[in-house]
Amino acid sequence: MGRMSSYTLGRRPQLDGLRGVAVLLVMLTHTKVLPWGYVGLDVFFVLSGFLITTLLYEEGARSGRIDLRRFYARRARRLLPALAVLLTAYAAVRLGTDLLGGHWSLRHQLLTTLLFANNWVVAAGRDSVLGALSPTWSLAEEEQFYVLWPVVVWGLLRLRRPRIRPRLRLPLRVLALLAVTLTVIAALLLLVPHTPPGAWAHSHRQGYFDPFNRATELLLGCATALLWRLRPVALPGAAQLPLLLAAFTLAWHFDGFRKDESVRWAAALAALALLTTLAVEHGTLTRLLKLRPLRYAGRISYGLYLYHWPLATMVGQLFPWLPRPAYVLATFALSFALAAASWHFLESRFLHSRKPEQPAAPPTLPAPQRYRERVSSGS
Fold first, then answer.
1. Burial class for 165, CB neighbours closer than 10 Å (0-12, 13-18, 19+)
2. Which is nearest to 306 in space by CA: 190, 177, 132?
3. Cα distance between residue 147 and residue 174, in whole Å
4. Which of 28, 130, 269, 335 could lock 308 by a disulfide, CB 3.0 to 4.6 Å apart?
5. How far is the CA of 158 from the CAs of 60, 162, 167, 169, 273, in angstroms?
6. CA–CA dist 155, 221 (Å, integer)
7. Quick check: 50 and 274 in contact, CB under 8 A?
8. Helix (H) or strand (E) holding 76
9. Which of 162, 160, 103, 153 is nearest to 133 (CA)?
10. What band does 4 get if pLDDT is binned at 50, 70 and 90?
11. How many whole angstroms separate alpha carbon 202 and alpha carbon 189?
12. CA 328 to chain centre
């Protein structure tokens, strides 16, 4: 009695639902239904930092080490198959028609996408050269971060003697302090025009696409994961009310923010949403995020994000006479159909194609302290 449900991290329902909300917001913005749905990307960045950090740390807690080669191989199996399908289809359409174009040659578009460099292209204000591949800038931002951050986690976990688990808490505190410090420093640098990140963020439209700005959101997700592991808590359902009010206020006053300013508020709200949905197991927001349609959208969110913009572009170019509701409905229907097929017949098969040599218990999030005490006392 009183024991918190234990989910593996990859199957925690409310996090899948949160991912689903994020991708739907982005799609609603790209189909011109919502003007502020791009904040879904802020949720994606914070959630990505949170999930990857938790998985890395829990692997270290279980086995005493982090297998970087296995980590990068898994990332490749997760991302490359669907991306290869997108680029192949995109190249075929570009070569055979004048749809989906950009101001660059197809060769340059494919090259910068495969090199995960499109975040720097759009940050320089040149997203028009990428055509329908322009949304891949956020994918590039995440992958550049994942090249560096796992090495930091791996290095700090090696500070302890191998397989002596009681010493694991010291690197956890160090990691949490490092993540919080880097987040604060990055945020402050963005506010100072005379620093390279600040100068970049204050010029033209780079504030929204700025790689330093987005790295701050990823770091915020990392810090959230580590702080949660240090001190997990259980909160009543009413604790989610301030978050809902803050989200409503941000949406209500959206027109008063510049696009780059709303990024900071949305990232903070995304971190709060993460914490409250983990700490409140049965709150209103948590129940909403556990709805099956949202969870499924979260599960296929990678395919939805990759495919929806090229499909939206093609539908708009082929059927310019469609009324807005029909255009939105067609784009969503095609995107969900393609993303679902991609997940069930391609992505999931590659993701689970290689079994680990020594299967380990699935990672779980820590239960709050008061629940641990009840369990240990036999209640």
1. exposed
2. 132
3. 20
4. 335
5. 9, 7, 11, 12, 32
6. 19
7. yes
8. helix 68-96
9. 103
10. very low
11. 11
12. 24
